[in-house]
Design brief:
The protein is α/β, with parallel strands linked by helices. It folds into three domains: 3-192, no CATH class; 205-336 and 471-546, Rossmann fold (3-Layer(aba) Sandwich); 339-464 and 557-570, Response regulator (Rossmann fold), CATH 3.40.50. The protein is 40% helix and 13% strand. The chain is built from 22 helices and 17 strands. The strands form four sheets. Strands 12-11-13-14-15-16-17 form a seven-stranded mixed β-sheet. A five-stranded parallel β-sheet has the order 7-6-8-9-10, sandwiched between helices. The chain has a three-stranded antiparallel β-sheet with strand order 2-1-5. Helix 17 (420-429) links the parallel strand 13 and strand 14 (437-441). Helix 9 packs parallel to helix 21 (493-513), helix 14 (339-349) packs parallel to helix 15 (365-381) and helix 21 packs across helix 22 (519-527). The longest helix has 21 residues, at 493-513. It is globular. The chain starts with a helix and ends in a 7-residue tail after the last strand. Mean pLDDT is 85; it is low at 1-42.
Length: 577
């Protein structure tokens, strides 16, 4: 094999290593189908009669993403020739993704269905320039496939499954029972899908922003901002490696055209959270950005989350323990559900244990999220609801209260989303005949975890939503030297580690995006990444998938050993079934 051909194989394999491709056939198909595209195509047209552009795109989006007709009814379709299905079961976005740029799953390649791709010929090696094609071996140069679509041709293939070149599409492709205006709306939407650049993206740069609020402790702010800025600066200084080194290499021109310089603005939020939305809108009007990266605020992430949903701005891995919990929102990707996830873990752990249970928590954000996580998950699992006692943040708990609670739940479980002072008082109050099990949160206990009274340790199970300490050492041995080399003070190692991981993820994502700098494709690419089980992160496993907006889905249940320097003993797997 010639040197350039070998280089071709290496580059393709490296670019696709995180996707779920299994053999050379899939690689060849991807090279033929997943065209790097162009930033804009001359496919403009008027919307269907009687509709504004905005209304036509809104209605078309509902059809494409949700399978819902303008009438509000579900789209009807047929798969495999005679199997009737409704729109939500086989919406276009399920396979072609929200961006319309297609997907890869194993050896199954779903081609792009966006305007920039559909309305130009699909010919052999069309994604390569003449310079690139000189280096392509013959087996990567198949015959022409089809001409460019017209509106009429696109309408026909949607209904018949036969493209302009006479090819019959895969039978799994639904044949939609559409006519007239509904069909015109869908065609118009596809023509405009991922066909013009997203805000914040040019042919030379990608503009990003990160967010901090003025009340954030300086050490936490520095841990986030300095680590994230170091990634941006490092990428700029290594442009030589990201861009092609010589025009003689296969893909060299594409690498050059795909490269973007990154800029990072810091949007500082001042005042109360109810004013943050207007501040964000002002920043965005002044200089639109492609996405938000990281970020850290004091309090709930909700105002930023809502701003991103409204403006369709990706927000990737903010540092927050107060994420928005939603099954429907799209644009913010969180590390986890925060304390809510710990409540989920206890409900799953207790599923088959039986006995009465009570949740006791203070009415803080942490306490209420922990209790809600348990409550919601127990209901889903059919676990009997626990009794609840909600205390005011500063409310004192008497010895008689604890005595009565322990007596009532002696054969059950006390789920105590409380701090070390409360747990210590229980140990002083209770006699040797303690309840069957206590549950506590490592997030609430924080640095006081090791102060848990030894009397309670054998009966206390603790939620632990991060890597275990012994596993954490390997991560620290990588992140700490990196911080030292970058001359970043070690002010909050957990926060710096999250930004370190974000940087490694972005490097992979930009490589896969090629020239397709559309916001929805940015998120689509992240969704198609393989799960991470051996990565530099605070969590032992991060998993991705279409629409999954909480990458860490597990939580350990642990106990403490005896002694002045207790060890953490794992009592459950990471993902608790």
């Amino acid at each position: 094999m010639k040197r350039d051909t070998m280089l071709c194989a290496v580059i393709v394999l490296r670019q696709l290593s995180r996707y779920k491709l299994l053999n050379l056939m899939a690689i060849v198909l991807v090279m033929l189908v997943l065209d790097p595209g162009v930033f804009a195509a001359d496919i403009s047209s008027s919307p269907p009669a009687g509709l504004s552009r905005e209304e036509a795109l809104r209605l078309g989006e509902a059809m494409y993403r949700e399978g819902v007709l303008p009438s509000g009814e579900y789209m009807q379709a047929v798969v495999e020739g005679d199997i009737p299905v409704e729109g939500p079961m086989f919406s276009c976005a399920h396979c072609h993704m929200r961006s319309g740029l297609g997907s890869v799953e194993g050896t199954i390649v779903t081609p792009p269905t966006n305007g920039a791709k559909l309305f130009k010929p699909f010919k052999s090696g069309q994604e390569f320039t003449e310079q690139q094609r000189k280096h392509l071996p013959s087996y990567l140069q198949p015959p022409d496939i089809r001409p460019a679509y017209t509106d009429a041709m696109l309408a026909d293939v949607i209904r018949t499954g036969i493209d302009p070149g006479g090819r019959k599409l895969d039978p799994i492709m639904p044949l939609y029972l559409l006519e007239g205006r509904d069909l015109d709306i869908l065609v118009y939407y596809l023509k405009n899908l991922s066909s013009s650049p997203s805000p914040g993206a040019t042919d030379r740069t990608l503009r990003f922003a990160t967010i901090v609020s003025e009340e954030v402790r300086k050490g936490d702010r520095d841990a986030m901002l300095l680590a994230l800025s170091a990634y941006i600066k490092d990428r700029q200084s290594k442009a030589y490696y990201y861009k092609a080194r010589t025009r003689r290499q296969l893909f060299a021109e594409e690498m050059d055209l795909s490269y973007r310089e990154l800029t990072l603005a810091t949007w500082e939020l001042k005042g109360t959270p109810d004013t943050w939305r207007s501040q964000l809108e002002a920043y965005y009007r002044k200089e639109p950005v492609f996405a938000l990266l990281g970020g850290i605020v004091k309090g709930s992430w909700s105002p930023i989350h809502e701003f991103c949903e409204k403006n369709r701005i990706p927000c990737i891995f903010p540092v927050t323990d107060q994420p928005v919990l939603s099954d429907n929102d799209w644009y913010t990707l969180y590390f986890s559900k925060g304390p809510y996830q710990e409540g989920e873990a206890v409900a799953k752990f207790l599923k088959d244990k039986g006995g009465p249970a009570v949740q006791i928590y203070r009415k803080t954000d942490e306490g209420m999220r922990l209790a809600q996580g348990y409550r919601d998950t127990a209901k889903k699992l059919g676990v009997p609801a626990a009794d609840e006692v909600a205390l005011n943040p500063d409310e004192e708990i008497t010895d008689s209260f604890w005595s009565s609670v322990i007596e009532k739940y002696r054969d059950g479980s006390l789920i105590l989303w409380l701090g070390i002072d409360d747990l210590t008082r229980i140990a002083r109050t209770a006699d040797a005949d303690l309840p069957v099990a206590f549950f506590a949160s490592s997030t609430v206990l924080g640095q006081s975890l090791n102060l848990l009274p030894e009397k309670m340790r054998q009966r206390t199970f603790i939620t632990y939503p991060f890597r275990l300490p012994d596993d954490r050492k390997r991560i620290d041995h990588i992140v700490k030297p990196w911080l030292k080399v970058k001359k970043i003070p070690e002010t909050n190692l957990a926060v710096s580690t999250e930004m370190y991981f974000l940087g490694t993820l972005l490097t992979d994502v930009f490589m896969h995006m090629q020239r397709n700098y559309y916001r929805d494709y940015f998120l689509d690419v992240i969704d198609m990444l393989q799960d991470e089980s051996d990565t530099i992160a605070n969590y032992p496993r991060l998993s991705f998938g279409p629409g999954q907006r909480y990458a860490s889905k597990g939580c350990y249940i642990v106990q403490l050993s005896a002694g002045k320097k207790p060890r953490i003993i794992r009592k459950s797997d990471w993902v608790i079934h």
